[in-house]
Design brief:
Rossmann fold; Arc Repressor Mutant, subunit A; 5 domains; seven-stranded parallel beta sheet; globular
Length: 630
Amino acid sequence: MSSPIQLLQENWNYDTFRPLQEEIINAVIENNDAFALLPTGGGKSICFQIPALLRPGICIVISPLIALMHDQVQHLQQKGIKAIALTSGIKYTELDTLLDNCIYGNYKFLYLSPERLQQDLVKERLKRMKINLIAIDEAHCISQWGNDFRPSYKKIKILRELKPAVSMIALTASATPEVVDDIIKELDLFQPKIFRQSFFRSNLGYMVYHTLDKNDKLIRILNRYPGSSIIYVRNRKSAIEISDFLNASGYTSAYYHGGVDAKEKTKRFQQWLAEEVRVMVATNAFGMGIDKSNVKTIIHYNIPESIESYFQEAGRAGRDGETSYAFLLKNENDIVRVQNQFIKVLPDVDFVKFVYRKLCNYFRISYGEGEQSAHGFNFNTFCKTYDLNTLMTYNTLQFLDRCSVINFTQRFTKKSTVHITTTGDQLLKYLEQNTHLELITKAILRTYGGIFDEEVKVNLSLIASKINTSEANVIDVLKKLQDAELLEFNYKLTDADIVFLVPREDEHTINRVKPYIKELSASKANKVKTMIRFVQNESICRSRQLLAYFGEKDSKDCGICSVCISNKKTVIDPKKIRNDIVALLQQKQLSSREIISHLKCPEETALEILRELNTHNIIKIDSYNNYQLV
């Protein structure tokens, strides 16, 4: 019989375990319930995969993330290990067959969403399986205080009733002490062995900088800290634009978001791993399965929505032990922007009821019917049909998804795509002769970067709304340009899937999950406010703030974060800075960026002194935004 270290070497090509992995594995092998709190990159999956492989039978893995399920199943299958994931949308007959395969087909891992545990067929087949371990991934989802709380996770306790003698392991990368206690209680873990790795990273400096010009700050960071980097942005458009900006500035860069097709994602990821591309500009879709040890800098271009998200993404830097940095760039508008984007668009219960009722009417679902019915869904058309706020509606659909009323899946791979196959000059010449096509075409060009280089997924409703026309007109123009052989246009009717998980009962459906909707809204709002407080706190070591959030109260100053470095600096002499600015401007006119690059002081200090000199008519700004002496 193989030992844990032999399995590690044979299947994962590692010679040694990461901190706490071996202790957790041994505890599970000895049939203990276990709780593993390991930071991002701590290797949580190995902690249940190795014990499961050492025992006869199948391991049940509960996970809320379909993409993560598929990723882990794919990795196991590549190692020759039989694994399967039962996600939503599988027909009853297929589900029946797949469950039989788990009983009779020597499968070692069955990945389930928590919603699956509510199905009688699944529960009956689980009773007949020889289950050797139950693993609860992303266990913080079971706690109402946790990040991404999902009420469906509370159904997991049914596994205790079905298989009371099987040991259970809960795993998470982000949990406060309150959440840890809640997880143990909700899962009914019996005298669990608790393994908690300190979140302190002595080699990682958390840097929060206020800047008026984020792109300029990006360049300065990349110049100062050579090496592999990830820049996290909030949306796809920003990912494309910043990647284009970096490439134009001489840095090898690629962008990564949910709309990039799977083949291209893999290609870009491999280029980044192989150092062919230095910078990956990405939304939070780039995170799962990243195992690159020498990332030098993580740069958050926007304020994240929670400490948990920020900590996990920042933690992808410096896994090789070398000094590395996690930068967060902010300006005066960011606080208001993050409040508008994450707090002010949280729906109340009445709005959730309204959207649910409209959703049922949209798909003509009768009262008492609709359970397990699947539908292609065009989100923007739905919002336009009922004149709904898009952000509030999106959050509502996510709440309904988390409360297991519906399953809402965005089908990024099936969106409409456009690829301009001619040159810019030829396209403009054609538009001069066909002016009725010009407005819509230019709206597309201004909205999507890289459209001349590759196939780009486009939001037809967004283009239509920008120039106050109909989606049908946009489609008509694109088809005419395609007929003229100027571009390739692939049109798809839907951009998402909706699966109704329960029969339609209107108010009764929502009233059952009403407490959860309120808790989800309150929790999300609180997390955003906590993140804002972290960004604004310039007096306490950044590392200490993060550790305190996760329950580590006795930490020391890290010495390498932006607060610690600021505290170490000698007192700045404003008079010297003023004299230095005057001396620089005696030579020639300069922009604020050029002046700041010559000064040895924080950007905010330099800008404040520039404003003061301008107020006192010592310097002035010309029409080109350059400073000169009066």
